[in-house]
Design goal:
mainly alpha, 5 helices, 3 strands, globular, 156 residues
Amino acid sequence: MKEAYDLAIQELKRVDHLFWVSLKYTRTVDVIKHVIDRIISCMGYGFESMLKYAKEKKLVTHVPENAGLRCELLKKTFPDNAELLEYVNFYVLLRKLSKAEYTKREEFRRHVTMIATIDKGEIVHVDIDILKEYYEKTKSFIRLVKKIINEEKEDQ
């Protein structure tokens, strides 16, 4: 549980660097895509940490390897945590963005945009401002994970 949380923190540091340094100087869609991939990785480790916590509390019997199964298990294990359900849906959206076909607009400029087509032709524009929202949302997700897994220490 702690190892997965630490890995999530490490990924968040990488996202931080990609966002504040790499994207600032390159402004390419490839960097936007890398930031999205790192956020996915960070959240994946956060989910793993939460599921391992749930396993220690005997709420679940195993932690699946598949990301989709992990999301479903999280929804079943913490059904009353609306904030967590929102993060699971956000994670699913990011995974769709990562796998989607995309085009580039205004590379090497302030308004660089990744235009991805997901589910049934839905078009999603990801620019620096939206990416910052994603980054902030990921930081708040990590705070939630810390709060949930630290409840265990308070119980003891």
